[in-house]
Structures are given as C-alpha cells and as structure tokens.
Amino acid sequence: MISELTRGERRLALAVLTAVAILGLALAVAGRGDILAVHGGLIMASAVVLMFFVISGYYAPEPGEERFAQYYDTPTKAGVVLAMIWAVIGMGVGDWVAWLLVYPEMTFDAAWASFGRLRPVHTSGVIFGFGGNALIATSFHVLQRTSRARLPDQFSPWFVLIGYNLFCLLAASGYLLGITQSKEYAEPEWYADLWLVVVWVVYFSIYLRTLMRRQEPHIYVANWYYMAFILVVAILHIVNNLAVPISFGSAKSYSAFAGVQDAMTQWWYGHNAVAFFLTAGFLGMMYYYLPKRAGRPVFSYRMGILGFWGITFMYMWAGSHHLHYTALPQWVQTLGMTFSVMLIVPSWLAAANALLTLNGAWDKVRDDATLRFMMLAVVFYGLSTFEGSFMSIRAVNSLSHYTDWTVGHVHAGALGWVALITFGSIYAVVPWIWKQPSMYSNKLVEAHFWLSLAGTLIYVFAMWNSGIIQGLMWRTYSEGGTLAYSFIDSLVAMRPYYIARAIGGGFFAVGAVIGLYNVWMTIRQASAERAEAPDAPVVPALARSLQAGE
Amino acid sequence: MSVGDYDPYTGQRLTGHEWNGIKELNTPVPKVVWFFLGVTALFAFVYWVLMPAWPLGVTYTKGLLGLDEREIVREKVVEAARQRTWTQRIAQEDYAAIQADAELMQKVRQAGRTLFGDNCAVCHGTSGKGGPGYPNLADKAWLWGGTPEAVAETIRVGINSDHPQTRTSQMLAFGRDQMLDRTAVLNVVAYVQSLSNPALANGPEKDAITAGKAVFEANCVSCHGPDGKGSTEVGAPDLTDGFWIYGGDRQSIFDTVWGGRQGYMPAWEKRLSDVDRKILTLYVLDLGGK
Predict the structure, then answer these.
(1) Cys-Cys crosslink for A507: which of A151, A455, B147, B156, Cβ 3.0 to 4.6 Å?
(2) A480–B117 C-beta distance less than 8 A
(3) Looking at CA atoms only, how far is residue A443 from chain B in angstroms?
C-alpha cells in the first residue's frame, strides 16, 4: 500500500498524520478530566500507528509511470473489506438490541450495555460504517470506469477512506462511553463532526478532479447520484451540526438551534440522510453494477434524467413529515406531506428503469444470485418508497407515528434496498478487482441471498403487525371516554413480534457473516494464485490495455 | 456505437453514450409517468389551496377550508370532557356512594386499569400485587391506612417524596449503625418471625425468641407498638399479620433490621388530576384490599 504512494505523497502522509497526532494530543490535554481525553488519545494513537506504517514503507521503490495506465483500486479493495466488517459489527449489534427489547434485563447493570448507547452503535454502524464504506469504495471504482480516468492521486483516496473510518470509530466508541448530542443519525459530537467535514471536502474534491480529467463526453447518471450524495450530505451535516462546544476541553456541545427549529433542522437532516445517503448514493451504485452485471443497456436515458431531478428536488421538502401533529406549524407539515406524495413518481421511475433494464436478462436473474440481490433490492426500493409516501399522509401518520411500523418501514428500506444492493454490488465488484473468475463460493452467495430475503420478510412483517397493533391500542378508547389500554399493555402485546424481529434480524446478520467469509476467501484465493504464478512474461506494463468490465 | 443504432432485444434506439460497456436506450418516458406526475401534482395543488400551506413572510396561506389542527384538537378535548359526565360524578360524590353504584364502578375499573398501568404498575405490577420492596395493594395490609381517605392521601403526597406534606417513614439500620450487636439482631429477628408464627415460640429457638422480645421492647415498640401490630400513623408495618414487603424469611428480616429500610413513593398531586387520583384510589381499593 505504501509502495503505491510516491515519495512526495509519503511525505504528505507523514505531515498530515503528524498534524492529526498533534490535534489528538491537544484534545487529550485540553480534555483531561473529561471523557474527551479518551478520544484525543484514540485519535493520537491511530495517527501514530499509521505513521509507523508509513515510515516502514518509506524507502520502498516509488510506483512507476505505468500506474497511469491503470485504475487505482487498492482503496476500493480496502473499502469493501471495511464495509463487510462494519456490516457484521453493525448488524450484530442490531440483533443484540433487538434481543435486548425482548429481554430488557440483559444489560449486566453496565451503562455501555444500555439500549440508549447500543442502538446508535447499530444505526451508525450499518449506515455510516457499512453503507458509507461501501459508497466510498464503489464510488471510486465506478468513477474511474465511467470517466475513463484514474483517481487524481494516491494519497487523497486513502485520506478519505481512513479518515472516514476514524470518524466511524469515534462515533461508535463515543456512544458506548456516553458521548452523544442526541440527534438521531447525527449523534457524534463537535470534534468528530468537524473532522468529517474535512474528510468530506477531500472526498468531493477527488470526484471533481477525476471528472475534470474524464475521457468520456458525458457524465454517467451513476456519477450524478454519487455527487448529489456527497454534496448534499456535506450541506446537511454542516447545518444540522452547527453547535457550540461548552469548551475546547469538553466533549459536550450545545446546538445552535432550539425547540421546534431544532426539531425541523434535525428532520430536514434526518430525512435527507435517507434521501441522499441511503437513496442517492445507492442509486449510483445500482446504475453501474446492475446494467453491468446484467449485460444490458439501461432501459431509458430519459427516465434516468427525470428520476434524478425529481428525487433530488422533491426529497428536500419532505423532512417535515417526521413531525406531523407536533409543535411544528401545520403549513410546514402540509408541504412535507404533499412533496412526499409527489415523490413517489420519481422514486418509482428509478425503480422501473432498473427493473426494465433487466428485460432480456431475466434468465441471469434466475441463475445468478448476485444479480438477484440487485433485482430484489430494486423491488424493495419500490415497496419502501411507496410505503414512505403513504405513511407521510397525515391521516396515516396519526396511526403509524411512534410505532414499530416506522421501524419496519426503515428496515424494508435499509435491509431490503440498501443492504441488498450493496451485497449485490460487492459480490460483483470483488471478483472484478481481485481478478477472479467468480466469488470463492457461489453457493454461499446463494445462501446469503435466501437468508437476507427470509430475514427481511420476517423482520418487516413482524414490525408491520406490531406497529399497527401498537397504533390501534394507543388510540382505542373505552366507552367511558378514557384510554382502553395502558402503554404497558401494548408492550406485552409487542413481545411475540419482538422475538420474531430478532430472529429475522439474526438471519440477516448471519448472512453478513457469510458474506464477509466469502469475500475473505476470494481474496485469499487471489493472493494464493499470485504467489503460485509463474514468472510474468516480459511485457511492458504500459502496453496493458484496460479490459472492459474490469 | 452511434445514435440510431438499435438494441435488438427491445427494438429501442440507443443514445450512443457508452461508459465502460454500459449503454443507454433512448426509450421515451412512458405516458403513465407523466400522468401520475400530473395527478400527484394536482393533488398537492388542491391540498395547498384548501389547507394551510405556503409561508408568506410572517404569516402563511390559511387555506379555503379554514381548518386549523390545534383549534380542532382543542374543540375535541372540550367536547370529550363535556360528554364524560361520569367523571363529574366521580369528582362530586363521596367514596361510599360511588362504591355502591355498580355502573359507575364499572367505569372506574376501566379507566383505573389504564391509569394504574401507566402510572403505578412499574413498581406495584400490572395486577397491583407488588414485589420485593413494593407493597402488594391487593391484600388486606395497609402501611398508611386502608380507608379511601388514607389511600387518596398517600397517592397525593407520596412516601418520603419531595412533596412538602409527604408521608415520612424510616426503619433504622440497627445493625449497620451499631445500635444493636449481631446477636441482638439475630434474637430480635427470631422474635419478629414468631409474631406471625406463634408455633416458633416453643421451638428450638425458644431462648433466642425470649431474648429478642426484650430487644424488641427496648428498640422497636415506639413505631411497631408493644404488640408488634404497627401503626398507620407512622407507616410502621404490622409484624403479626404474615404480609411482608421485603420478605418474611429469616434472611430478609435480618437484612431489614440490620440495614434499615426507607421506601419511596412519588407524590402524584402535580402529575395526576384530582379525578384521576380519586379513580386510582377507588381502583386500588377495588383490587381486594378493603
């Protein structure tokens, strides 16, 4: 890895790591006596370990000019492995907290094991750890292929990938320590947020610098989606996290917003995190890997354009549907609801474009579990976007709000769409970049597919039932005009569904473990081959042309 | 590949773009898509016209229907209160009259069950039977009195709570605070156990019980009374009745005498309305502890 960096980049890496180590030290010193010191130490330790790593390879020969004839895939490889590791962590903790809801006493009287601390480890672990790493890894892969241009340099992709994972580590460890700003999906505190801004700006610059050097006349729709994801997430992240730390020696900060403005900002962020992190980014993934794997042209260029602008324009308004029947003024709720209803059309347009692309390749969908992962993902995308628009209608929301129906809806999208499209894309990209004919075991891919499908269905059906029962119990009145059920009655009614949900989630998490194993064995297979390979023929590396589909 | 080439499978024209092998068909957007875009946009437009929708500086478009969700809720709450005549009877009539009215008590049981589940069940259990440290409300034993007025007062001010008129009670830590030595504690525990189980008095622990009686008379009678029947004035439990809050086995009683006890019950005066507390009083008494 270090041998792929030029001497100048190695010096840059050392300089950046030194700066990060000093920042970590500064945080640790300023935050002594505060929990912040732990994170300062963690940042410094990470930087120092990486410095040793860079120094150990510092005098390795520099990469030759021939690198410019190849795409730079090592960061993608690392990103794929990190995504799968985070998948196992995030989904494992998810199933843990699912069981915790069945057995609430399972906290060992330890603060870190309480539901409130473990749940964000699950949500951030799967959204940012698994989803984010998969987006970064695949975006580098797709960007280079569809632009016919190599990444601009060898240092910045590593900065983005490693810097991003440092953010994820600060987030997850912070939750266990009790560091949170209590904003859903934006829990990390000010110093982690600032760090992510730096990482994200570099990420966007990689995109722009590569696109500027593209050798294709047009920018492929996948790249529009990836760019929308990067750009809008930056805006959302910065605005929602505007806060004032109580001091530079404290992990605690106070938001710049208060009351209903705070709620609105948070859900403008929260819903657009769904829109631009969990939808736009993964649509970018889908638009490359699905047609590529199916070997079919995209069904409609025009539907691609209309879908893209429809989704990016209308999602921006939809956040207030999270705050129906609250202190938020009714007119804001109206706008959120009506734009959410209109949003169904561009959402289904994107889903239809993907499914119709499979026309002429349905035999492959039948035979190839990887393509089937992507097909099923698109089906779930269509289902959950329909459900989302439906639930945003105020009358429906009055039943569904605060119930498990919301949880089921989120997981129909997160398991059914986000995770399945990611697994499909990873199973497609891993053999390509490790130069293998296929995954280590296609049977394991098949097993993973059925575990994922069964897990998602069990999960979603359990939560639909549970949510609707909950919603009905909470609004049922006795003839005397008082509530017919206490909250604790509804908890008792939930229990069987919580068990079912934990089992479904367990299926899904086991699938992720199988996926990690399969990816790992494919990599081992690739490196074993390399070790056994006979002497390479004397061919000038520059003459090696890039293969389609690589 | 150039514009005008056809995809053999669909017969559609290709756009001529190609990215690493991915091509695009120039399929027109289906009419049904435009239709549904129109339908949803029309729905949105009509909704905006009828309901509060767009901001106008410091105000907003109110909508032709003039509906305001908060006004609607306010009216519904007033209307619901007006229709709930039975709660007015609860507020006005005395306990005995309500308890005598089977129809009204039916309403109390319905509303009381939910109120109890939402406010009391966390400690006392959904059935009111309590648990270790939390009194059973469905039995005949009452720490602070089992009349409706006494129960209502306990709910209103709580026990050892932050209410200025709270009921206050403490069982001292006789062992830990070195008021009694270990032997004395063991003896008084044996005596206390014999109060609800007189057969023990002639058993093998006869001497310990006798010694314990002396300890009891010197230390415990001020609260629990000379006969151990307790006092609802100071919340001292009756030790002769076989009902136990913290357990009636030897070890539990020992822990109580050694380490003391100070239960806590929150005051509900500011958290529940007068009617709700009255319903809860009636509900609790109806559980069986009359």
Answers:
(1) A455
(2) no
(3) 28
